[in-house]
Specification:
Distance between the termini: 37 Å
Strand order of the largest sheet: 3-2-4-1-5-7-9-11-10
Oligomer: single chain
Structural class: alpha/beta
Strand content: 15-25%
Order of helices and strands: HHEHEEHEHEEHEEEEEHH
């Protein structure tokens, strides 16, 4: 058998391992802004939790969005616990990110496609975020009108071309039901649920239009221990924020490639 000399790619991938990235003391999310588009974040709860754990987090800011008109002031409160659980996961993995709460449910407890689009534009244009977490899905029947579907897709594509990484949760019964915007891959990173022995472990497992699986249990809130794509998505978003804190100018397709190679090199694919 003839042995071939290593190529430059072999050398790169040998260095690109989970240990080389996640054990770097600088991989904390520092300098990276993350928007959690969800049901709002209860700021005091997270501040207390991380302060009691001896972890310093940046002040959470945000806004409450409507289908039209300017956003309303964020007062530090949630519309429901879901968004706080999501934000807690991001901060658990990447405690030094600058986190923004984009509440798209508000006092009505319901969310329209136009509200999500408004939050996406605000996160990109005003907050200048690098990562957007969407642990919510718009059912396919709400996008039967072609203009609504096109507007949502254009917003996702705009994020991609503005170097903003969007993580979107697959439907929890995937692939029986399609859920948007996760089905708009590849401009974003779609995430399904999996159970791993470490929250930093994940897998590339292409199924329909969903590419990744991540740890799917949370740490805070009434439903956090129930496996769900809502909790898997911020795990991968937090991992990406840690990578970006080492090299903030990475583009979305580069992050997706790095995640894939981290999975390949780290044996992340074994589910518990």
């Amino acid at each position: 058998m003839i042995e071939t000399a290593p190529t430059v790619f072999d050398e790169i991938f040998a260095r690109l391992t989970p240990n080389s990235i996640f054990q770097d003391a600088r991989a904390t999310g520092e300098g990276i802004a993350v928007a959690v588009i969800d049901s709002g974040v209860e700021r005091a709860v997270l501040e207390t939790k991380f302060r009691d754990a001896g972890t310093s987090i940046q002040r959470i800011e945000g806004a409450v969005f409507r289908p039209s008109g300017p956003p309303l002031e964020y007062t530090g409160h949630q519309s429901s616990p879901h968004g706080t659980t999501v934000a807690d996961i991001v901060l658990t993995l990447a405690p030094r990110v600058k986190l923004y709460s984009a509440d798209v449910f508000g006092p009505t407890g319901s969310c329209e496609v136009e509200t999500v689009i408004a939050a996406l534009h605000h996160a990109i244009d005003v907050w200048k975020v690098k990562v957007i977490n969407l642990s919510l899905g718009v059912p396919e029947h709400k996008l039967q009108q072609l203009p609504r579907r096109q507007q949502l897709q254009r917003a996702i594509e705009e994020a991609y071309f503005r170097d903003v990484l969007v993580f979107a949760a697959a439907h929890n019964e995937h692939p029986l039901t399609r859920s948007y915007p996760a089905a708009f891959a590849p401009p974003l990173i779609s995430v399904d649920k999996g159970l791993f022995d470490d929250p930093l472990r994940f897998a590339y497992k292409l199924s329909e239009q969903v590419e990744f699986q991540a740890h799917s249990r949370g740490y805070l809130g009434p439903f956090a221990r129930e496996p769900a794509t809502s909790w898997a998505t911020p795990h991968l978003a937090g991992i990406a924020a840690r990578i970006l804190s080492l090299k903030p100018d990475l583009k979305p397709f580069e992050i997706k490639t790095i995640l894939y190679w981290l999975f390949r090199s780290g044996g992340n694919g074994k589910l518990t």
